[in-house]
Structures are given as structure tokens and as C-alpha cells.
Design a protein that fits this description.
alpha+beta; Rossmann fold; 13-stranded antiparallel β-sheet; seven-stranded parallel β-sheet; 29 strands; 36% strand
Length: 557
Amino acid sequence: MSASRVLVIGGYGVFGGRLTRRLVREPGLDVLVAGRSLARAKAHCDRFGGTPVELDTSGNLSAALRALSPSIVIDAAGPFQAYGADKYRVALAAIAAGAHCLDLADDPAFVAGIDDCDQAARAAGVAVISGCSSVPAISSAAVEALRDGLLAIDSIEAAIMPGNRAPRGLSVMRAILAQVGRPMQIWRGGQWQRATGWGQTWLLQPAVAGKAPLGRRPVSLIGAPDLLIFPRVYGARTVSFAAGLELGLMHHGLRVLSWLVRRGVVRDLTAWAPWLKWIADRLEPFGSDRGGMVVKVIGRRSDRAIVERCWTLIAEAGDGPEIPATPALLMVRKLLLGTVEPGARPCVGALSLDDVADGLRGYAIAMERDERRLTPLFEEALGAEFHVLPTALQRLHDVAAVEVFEGRSSVARGDGILARLLGWAMGFPAATPDIGVRVEMQRRGDTEVWRRTFGSRQFQSTLSLSSKGREGEVWERFGVLSFRIGLTVAANALGYPVTAGRAFGFVPLPRWLLPRSDTRETVDEHGRACFDVAISHPLAGDIVHYRGWLVPAGGSA
């Protein structure tokens, strides 16, 4: 067996091609560029170097690998979610041939399940490392650096935003389309929750000193190995991953397709991949060749301070596609040095940010880290009085990222026509003596979004600090209506009296139109946070009165 022969399956594809172009420049390597099309492999090798090999992974792969005798096999083909029941056939064939195996997979189940090959890999004395790509290899390298000195991690967020002129392989498009509109599981507030691929959308504006910002880019929730692996490895209470397309037409077009899949209008978007790729190729001249990646960690230091640490990467001059290929190149170097332990595992924590920077040296790619201290909204509003509150209430409002609470409640509703209309408009639950309640509080920038769920009914509001910086004041927005609340701390309780209101953010509401909020949070004899919310109106009378208790939800991943 050649000690330095590297076989790259899919070695002429979008990312595999970039990897083989770089591998042939490594000293002492014999690079085999493999795939189903010998003509494409030969054309690639004629231009960039390497030896072309015709290889179909659906055939007798074990015999083929034994004949080729590589020391390292790299699977850069994909799409990995389409590998079927025998999804680790490449890894197992490599093990049988006595070769190390790397892959560029970013499919969550594929990467997280590579441990299935661990016993065989150890017995053969080889390493099988899955996910040697942007995620989880580079994202975990960033997390390893950002979590240094933190006692606990509240959240890990990562996002990738390629430039519109980045090449789009059909396998990559199929991998994305397989998730659009489909249900997925995310770890949020210490719980597994159901979400939708390319559903939740928000804006990011990545920036690195000395580089022009990318501008505001939309990103949407999508599956990645991080979602399954990071909760267990890093103990984070929330993990999210998002991707974004530079052109709003394309990004929001996928959101429309996501809606169609959720409604059952479209069953399988992967069948649309060739057609959608044709459209994307026609739009390639628009947008730019600039992309970015962001990894953010929110956690707590030993001095109890909450910090938000962010690693940002910006790629220019069309060099973004070099990023996914870099971890595999770095792992090849480590394998040849003999520094990788045998066994099968995801590529998590295997690389450092210094490794990544070294692998990207010479490309138009810049990276930066920054940190800022965070103060929970209610602590900032109340100042020293926050620490006078009972522990359970401090815990309730200690929102660094996402917190989820669960409990029970009773609900009473007003009988008047106007009261019923207002209650319906606000989404308040129907009257009941006992119902399960769930409250999710999410920090979003300098605001908190509260999503309250009573049974199957849900309503939400957004809280923010007073723009005038008045201590003890917050604003709570329900749709087009906003109310100023003068928080009060007395007798181990937190009160929420309404002191002013606005419509559409700027139209003041006269006092006779203001609702009355007789709202208090207390702690019961069991140490649970309790709420008692009574809302009425001078014209409508009693609207809703709900009261109950809450405890932190969640468990271990």
C-alpha cells in the first residue's frame, strides 16, 4: 500500500475539485481523482494534475479500493442523505482496505451516526472522520476557541452565507432542497423542539475590520450536524444553524417553496433540483462573489458575567468555495503526521482556528473575533432592585439566549362583546379551570420575545427597554400596540402596571384607551415562579385573568 496515496471520490466536483487541486500541490502525495465519469476525471487531471480513476460507489467498492490501495479515502461526492440504508459503505470499504476515511458530509444524521463504524475502525487501526467541511469541522473549531473560560454555554449559533456567484453543484442543491419545508428537530432552551427547514428567517450583517460589510443578509433555519452533536458535546442549552442566499429573490423564493411543502402542495423538491439550478445559473451574474460565516457563543464566565463571543469570516474574490474543502486537506496532513487516533467520529474539535487560518492562508479570506457583555433585559431595567427579587423570579428573567418554562394555569375570560373581541384579537386562551402552559423567552438583539402557549393557543409579545433609559421601565409590544410598563418591586413580588401606550409605534394612546394591567409575579411555597395576570379596559371591562405557576423546562441532550 502506498503510504501517501489519497483517493478522492467526487474529486472533480464543486468542492472535491477544489480539494484535489490543493492536494496535488502537497509534497509526496499521489492523488487519485475518482468518480463515475472517467472523462470528467481525466479533464480535471489534465488541467490540474492527479490521476483519473473511474469509480462507481454502488459497485464492488471493497474490491476496487483493495486494487487501488490508497492510504486515505475521501468521499466528496454526496448527497450523503441519499446514500440509503447502506450509507456507510464507503467508510466500511475503506476500513476493509486498511485505509483512513474522511468525508465532506454535512447531513446531520449521517455525520452524527458515524460512530456506528467506530469498532471496526479501531480494530483496523484506522481513523474514519465525518464532516470534514464547514460544518461541523470549522464551526466546532470556532466554538472551541469561543468557549474558552466559560463555565456554561447558553447558546451556539452558526450561519453560512455564500455569495451569489459561488458555484452550485447539483448534489449541494439536492441536499438543501431535501430539507426545505420538512420537519426537523432543534435543541432550544434545553428541549428538543420541532421546527421547519427554511422556515424561521432573520437578518445578519457580518463584518470584519478592514473589510466592507456584507450587508444585511437573510438567513433561514436549516439542518446541520451541529444541531445533533453540539448539545451533547458542549452542553449548550440552545443550538441553531442557518444558511442564507445573497439574492432576496432566491432566498425568499425558497421560503415560498417551504410553505408549499408544509401545506402538502409539493411533495418532493429534490425532483426540482435541475430546474432550480438552471434558474440559479441564470441569476449568477447578479449579486457578488463575497460570502461569510458566523459562529456565535453566549455563555457565562466564572464571575457570573454573561458574554457574547462571535467569530466572523468574510470571503472575497470568489474564494468562499475553498472553505468547505479546507478541513479535509488539514485532516490529511494530520493523518500523514500520525496525530489522529484510530476510530470513527465526527470532525468536532479536531481542528483549531489556527489550523483553519493556516489552511486558508493565501486566499482573500479574513477572520475576526469579538466579545461583548450582555445583561438580561429585566436586570438592566431594574438595576440593583433585580437582585432583591426572590431567586425563582431572577431565574425566570435571566434570559441570555432562550429560556423555556412550563407549568399549569387557570384562565377566566370577560363576557362582554368588546372584551371577547379584544381577547380574540390578542390571541388569549379560552376560559378553563386548568390548562398546561409553556412560556418561551428569547433574547433577540436588545429585545426579548415572549411566546406564551396555553394548550393549543399561542400569543406573543416583544419587550424592550425604555428609549429614554428610565430605570424600571420596559415597553411591551403586541402587534401594532405598545405599552409602557413601570416595573415595581415590593414584598418579594414584581408588578407590571401599564403607564402609557402607543399605536403603530408613534401614536400616543389617551389614558381612557389604556388597558389596566393588574399583574404580579410571586413565588409559592414550593419555590415556583407564579404569575397572576388580570387585564381589563375602561370600555370593555374584564378581558382576561390567568394565573398559575412555572418551572424551568428541559433536560439533557
